[in-house]
């Protein structure tokens, strides 16, 4: 995958807000008005590749934009997500977070409704408490064996 964020200077020129380590710009294919991409200046593919300072810089911009979008668009809530890896839909190899201002009754510019992305009533099998406990214990066991920082 080529990185259009790095290859096209007009992407950085579209920045609506930036700091030393991160920038935010409006996507040219929005789901809703105000659909913004927030990205580190440095080209990294995954959130795990960010430094703690870059991570903080990105979320500083997210928090600033949320306040602006509440006033500007009347946002009552937000979708905040990213795709990591081609199998998850990542099409640009430069980490970026999608920030979508939402308000009651909006449907998005397309048929896609991000509010139903992670939860569609009746679309998924419900896990039993036993299954959840087993998975949770497996995660805890791995965390005890390894240090992830």
UniProtKB/TrEMBL annotation:
GO MF assignments: catalytic activity
UniProt cross-references to Pfam families, sorted A to Z: HIT (PF01230)
Active site: 96 (tele-amp-histidine intermediate)
Residue ranges annotated for the HIT domain, each copy included: 1-109
Motif (Histidine triad motif): 94-98
InterPro entries for this protein: Histidine_triad_CS, Histidine_triad_HIT, HIT-like, HIT-like_sf
GO biological-process terms attached to the record: nucleotide metabolic process
Name of the protein in its database record: HIT domain-containing protein
Organism: Candidatus Taylorbacteria bacterium RIFCSPLOWO2_12_FULL_43_20
């Amino acid at each position: 995958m080529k990185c259009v964020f790095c290859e096209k200077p007009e992407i950085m020129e579209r920045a609506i807000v930036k700091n030393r380590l991160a920038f935010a710009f409006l996507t040219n294919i929005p789901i809703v008005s105000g659909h913004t991409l927030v990205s580190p200046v440095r080209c990294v593919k995954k959130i795990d590749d960010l430094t703690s300072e870059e991570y903080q810089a990105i979320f500083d911009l997210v928090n600033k934009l949320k306040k602006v979008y509440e006033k500007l668009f009347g946002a009552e809530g937000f979708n905040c997500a990213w795709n990591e890896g081609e199998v998850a839909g990542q099409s640009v190899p430069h980490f970026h977070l999608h920030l979508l201002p939402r308000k009651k009754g909006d449907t998005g510019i397309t048929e896609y409704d991000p509010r139903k992305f992670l939860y569609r009533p009746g679309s998924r099998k419900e896990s039993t408490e036993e299954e959840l406990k087993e998975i949770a214990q497996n995660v805890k066991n791995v965390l005890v064996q390894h240090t992830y920082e």
